[in-house]
Write a structure and sequence with these properties.
It is built from 10 helices and 28 strands. By secondary structure, it is an alpha+beta fold. The protein has an 8-stranded antiparallel beta sheet with strand order 21-28-23-24-25-26-27-22, with no helix packed on it. The chain has a 5-stranded antiparallel beta sheet with strand order 1-18-3-14-15. It is found in: Secreted; Bacterial flagellum.
Length: 550
């Protein structure tokens, strides 16, 4: 281009045409339309990628709200005092109403103290110390204690070498399961060895010593006849009453006293009321939050996919099939019956939720209050998954999988084969020797479930319900997951952007090629015109000279 530009400006005998401008115009005319088309495509992909990010952010915000709603459980457990702590372990096993728990005695560990040592590094003579676990008791009419070994426990043996320090001996004991030991500075110039067992009357210990050299002094740790003299605290069980029925446990954490609940007791001589109920105001708050978030997501999807009309511009993802499919999923989910929460499925409309003409949700206060008063457990269909059996002799202790379809299933036991069936799945049974059988499925939609079934139970109905929160969470997770709907949309748009950018690059390359071609052709043309004009000027001069000479 520089060549033809120079010729155009300096050569006074040339064509007189601005060849640079002409070449530029020709190149622009050749590529301007396809280049603008490619640029428009690229600009549109940038808008689409930004819009997909907005959709993802909105959906993740909804998902975060679902977690907050689930944590704000409608089903609550209240304790009338702080002396009995509660923790829900299986909300499906909780029974509505009150339970009175009286604490008569808390479980305690046995504490032994061996006193009179001069230092932590005081040395011990050689010998063997045998430890047995069990219970100390005084037989009726006797004055001395006896020890009963706890069935199923092992006798433990410690070998003490000559010169072993008191601190090393403490570490040997501390390494044994169920025992804690340490050397303590009494503050009066002496040291004591303290030994602590696990709580429970049956977890006390008896130490039997065999000295390598009789009379060497290791026998001071023998408690076969001196337990009471070295015992700082006796081991004991927890004693509680549950609705007036007295029970005993080895620990202060009670996991099998109130169904679905773990209790922690701390203060003897107290009585506590535990109330299990569903809170209407929590249900109302959760539903209103859910309505707000679902409506926001629906409105966003509607706006993003809207096509252009006379009154409104097209959305950034107008007509996008992926988002339209996601919106249809949400619409369907709102109207779909929720199975597994009783003999009949639950509809959101039955709980006071209404769908407006534009597809948005509202909460009808009167309908909600009536539904909650009539059947508060129906609201579990919105907030909580359910996996329960209709027979108290059957406990569901496993976990459901995504393969499991919500509904009510018939569990049938075959006493002759030690197997059971539920639907098309066969469960294998293992006799636990305590009047119960564990049933598990190795494959199929019920794999992962473990059913504890009392021996006298032949059949039961197992209910499995996925809550609206869970179903909505699954829809959002599917859309936002790696290789999910949004990822596939972004990949498609990214590919379009790459293709548009490639087209622009190719057009720029073509423009440079055209410029080079025009430079060559116009340069040759300008040279030819110059030669022609030079010859013409020469002939004109020659003719003029001839005419003059005549």
């Amino acid at each position: 281009m520089a060549q033809i530009d120079l010729l155009s400006k300096l050569n006074k005998t040339g064509s007189g045409v601005d060849l640079k401008e002409l070449a530029t115009s020709l190149v622009e005319a050749s590529i301007s339309v396809p280049k603008q088309t490619a640029q428009d495509r690229l600009d549109k992909t940038e808008v689409s990628i930004s819009a997909i990010g907005t959709v993802r952010s909105q959906l993740l915000s909804v998902q975060s709200s679902l977690s907050a709603i689930a944590a704000n459980d409608v089903l609550s457990v209240r304790s009338s005092s702080g002396t009995v702590g509660t923790k829900v372990t299986d909300r499906n096993a909780l029974a509505m109403g009150e339970t009175t728990v009286g604490v008569l005695q808390v479980a305690k560990s046995q504490v032994l103290e061996f006193t009179g040592f001069s230092s932590k590094t005081a040395t011990l003579p050689a010998g063997k110390v045998t430890l047995d676990f069990g219970a100390w008791y005084t037989p009726e009419g006797a004055t001395e204690e006896s020890f009963a070994v706890k069935p199923g426990t092992q006798t433990l043996t410690l070998n003490v070498s000559e010169g072993t320090t008191l601190e090393t001996f403490a570490r040997q004991i501390d390494a044994l399961y169920g025992l804690t030991a340490a050397v303590l500075d009494k503050g009066d110039g002496t040291f004591s060895l303290g030994v602590l067992t696990q709580p429970g009357a049956g977890n006390a210990i008896r130490l039997t010593v065999e000295e390598t050299t009789p009379g060497s002094g290791l026998a001071r740790f023998d408690t076969t006849t001196t337990n009471s003299t070295v015992q700082a605290q006796a081991a004991q069980n927890a004693v509680v009453t549950v609705n007036g029925i007295q029970i005993f446990r080895e620990t202060n954490t009670l996991t099998d006293v109130v169904p679905g609940m773990e209790l922690t007791i701390s203060q003897p001589g107290t009585s506590t009321r535990l109330t299990v109920s569903r809170d209407q105001e929590i249900a109302r708050t959760n539903l209103m939050t859910l309505v707000e978030k679902v409506n926001a997501a629906q409105a966003m999807l509607t706006k993003m996919t809207a096509r252009e009309t006379e009154d409104e511009e097209a959305g950034d993802l107008a007509g996008n099939a992926g988002l339209q499919g996601l919106k249809r999923q949400l619409d369907s989910l709102i109207r779909r019956p929720i199975a597994g929460y009783g003999d009949k499925p639950v509809y959101l409309t039955e709980l006071g939720l209404r769908t407006q003409q534009d597809g948005s949700l509202t909460l009808n206060a009167k309908a909600f209050e009536k539904a909650f008063a009539d059947n508060p457990s129906a609201f579990d269909a919105v907030f909580s998954n359910r996996l329960t059996a209709d027979d108290e002799g059957v406990s569901v202790v496993g976990v459901s999988t995504r393969k499991m379809t919500p509904g009510v299933f018939s569990f049938q036991r075959n006493p002759a084969t030690a197997e059971a069936t539920m639907g098309d799945t066969t469960f294998s049974g293992v006799d636990m020797g305590d009047g119960r059988t564990f049933f598990t499925a190795a494959a199929g939609e019920f794999s992962g479930l473990i059913l504890k079934v009392d021996d006298e139970v032949a059949s039961a109905r197992i209910s499995y319900g996925k809550s609206f929160l869970t179903l909505l969470d699954e829809v959002i997770s599917s859309a936002t997951a790696n290789s999910g709907t949004l990822d596939m949309m972004r990949n498609t748009v990214t590919a379009e952007a790459t293709d548009a950018q490639k087209t622009l690059t190719e057009l720029d390359t073509r423009a440079e090629s055209l410029k080079t071609m025009y430079a060559q052709r116009f340069g040759a043309m300008e040279a030819a015109v110059t030669r022609f004009n030079s010859t013409s000027s020469y002939l004109d001069s020659l003719v003029a000279q001839w005419n003059k000479n005549e």
